[in-house]
Amino acid sequence: MMPEPRIDKISTHSFILPGFARAEDEALMTAIKQITAEAPLRQMSTPRGFKMAAQLSNCGDYGWVTDRQGYRYQQTDPDSGEPWPEMPALFQALAVRAAASCGFDDFAPDVCLINCYQPRAGMGLHQDKDERDFSAPIVSVSLGVPAIFLFGGLQRRDKPEHYLLQHGDVVVWGGDDRLRFHGIQAIKLSHHPLTGQYRYNLTFRRAF
Ligand code: MD6
Ligand code: FE
User: Fold this and answer.
1) What's the CATH number of domain 8-39+53-205, 3.30.1060.10, 2.30.40.10, 2.60.120.590, 1.20.1730.10?
2) How far apart are the CA of 128 and the centre of ligand 2, in A?
3) Does the beta carbon of 195 sit less than 6 angstroms from any atom of ligand 1?
């Protein structure tokens, strides 16, 4: 018998699944290396001209990008003009399974954003709101060195809760929580046998 996955409910429609992706960690990292060989990780600029601390790439039908023109989803990698690499079946299946185990049936992600954080990189509080409809949840997979996830409210001023995300943890959120502000505290220097000093995060979305 497979053990029941642990589900920590952190809000009405938000869940942390500790270690949910752990059994597939090596296959996930191998796929990340293949994808980022085709569509390299890069520091993108925000609309205001600041560089994002984390390095980004994508796979799937669309990718999330930012530059001086703004935030958006597009079918091609702006650096190469080529379509983003295909989303591996392994990624798709993991995201669908995680969503379903939190009550989100029929999740059909068309984007997987890949974030890579080096020591001291973080991500400020933001909402994920560039998607066309907010009925689909977001599924986020953490790999490598740990991070503190800041989970706020629907207003930027709402004081965030702090959660530790470790290698293999998955966060699923949607419904009433879909537009909550969230971020990642600056990563501390540490080491993970699979990723070295880095933290990788995969976020699966339905953009269109
Ligand atoms: C990260 N994650 O974990 C950044 N967004 O590196 C996100 O921005 C995020 O984890 C929406 C839902 C879950 C997330
Ligand atoms: Fe986000």
Assistant:
1) 2.60.120.590
2) 5
3) no
